[in-house]
């Protein structure tokens, strides 16, 4: 009998001279020593997330501009055990060092080493008693464990091993691969995405008006990041171009004259199609400081069904919501509703300054049971309505993987349910979590129909963006039912195509219909729109050309069309949050354009991200564009990049390029 110790974490902490206070180091796999790529490093003080970053391709990280002091540092990566190192001292004016080796959990090496017996068959391992799994956990944590049995030839067993499951947890031979983001524990992918048929080119003679609802959701980008960080190309329908573009902040002109948002337009050559143009439209919402914001009546609606029992689901929901609670004031209120086999009220509406009480209720949540999502939604709206604050921010915040399987579950039924509830003046925020059975299609519908927004939370840094740095934009609406209608001049434009927004299209009659629901803009939010335009002098064959001539009428251009330098007119309708009648903004766009590389940083970056998304979708609207060209364009247009989001995007572009090379 022998005792084996499997350390989960090996640390080195050293201090070297450096002009700036920082924390840096490497994160590697405890067994193989390989670098953890795009792992999350988060720094806390007294339980509050202060800052964080991600590791690079070498597993190295650097957190700069730190205040000297003591931090708790948390290392996490999908499929790996979250590891916390408490009491890390960061000294002033130095490059402090903290290296970490983290564990992927229960691996085949741990089974073989700790049990010292021949590898058993997959069905045997799948049924391994829980007490043995607990023994493995003790061994991995550094507790002595032993077992009688014959010695095993680890090398030969390792070479013959594939995938095995212990109590539903997949383990592998050698280096555990990054967690498959589209695979459940039983190996079946049940993630759902609504089909996206990309917008086609239209003729301004036949379809002069392009009408759609704005969208400030950012879920698609974070979800795409999840796949690429796991060394997989995302499903095509998971890539929504408008959400990729709108994930980033843009330096648009601030609103004037008490308007809720400003409108910026620009025209340049197209970066993915020679001879075409890009029309860039940017909206910038008015900023709002939290101290000046109206009081909030928040109802957390939390999925605690069995499907949420995972490290990247309920175990991530709880710290994400704690971040939000830490930002609330005494005048704000929070209630907590949960649903599994049935819905229930866990916490009555409670003042925001009673943080210990609210966080205590969050911490007690446990997952188990089936998913009565509709019942939870009904109860959450009821609680929100009972505690309604006049002239305040009344909102339900839904945290789930979207896997509704009891009660109302079809897309149509869910849509009608949410449409009923939004008329009470209660907005909706949908937060998506998890992998394997993630239902993106349902959550997007709920957010679109519920006067709300939608984000995918894959780590605590993303939660911080939603609930700390972007809190007012997440919670406080400054304009609702915002619609855009663009009229193109057929004297100058041969054809046009809206890039993205496929699930936000409206009929032209909807623009002036104040009963038609549309998107909302939160405080400080920006909205970016791109049109690809074919100039009149460019020969171009598209579906809109293949229409027979009309028998009973003709299309004639007005004198204004042929004499004008205007390429388009952009109109916007919006309502103030407490109004039911829309207001109109209108401005023209002159046919004056610059080459793409001389356009503003805002247009260049938006065009680069759009091209990235088109490549991920294998779009038919790009020709001969490469990831190398997109990466170069991104490097040239990344700009100041205050929060490092654009640098992260460049890493994702490089990851996608490498996947393309490997796939080819």
Describe, in plain words, how this protein is organized in 3D.
The N terminus is likely disordered. The protein folds into 4 domains: 92 residues, Immunoglobulin-like (Sandwich), CATH 2.60.40.1120; 65 residues, no CATH class; 245 residues, Immunoglobulin-like; 164 residues, von Willebrand factor, type A domain (Rossmann fold, 3-Layer(aba) Sandwich). 26% of the residues lie in helices and 27% in strands. The strands form 6 sheets. A 6-stranded mixed sheet has the order 16-15-14-17-18-19, sandwiched between helices. With 664 residues, the protein is an alpha+beta fold.
- The CATH C-level name of the largest domain is Mainly Beta
The amount of beta strand, in percent, is 25-35%
Largest sheet: 6 strands, mixed
Secondary structure: helix percent: 25-40%
The 3D shape can be described as: globular
Count of DSSP strands = 25
Q: How many domain regions?
A: 4
What is the CATH architecture descriptor of the largest domain?
A: Sandwich
SS class: alpha+beta
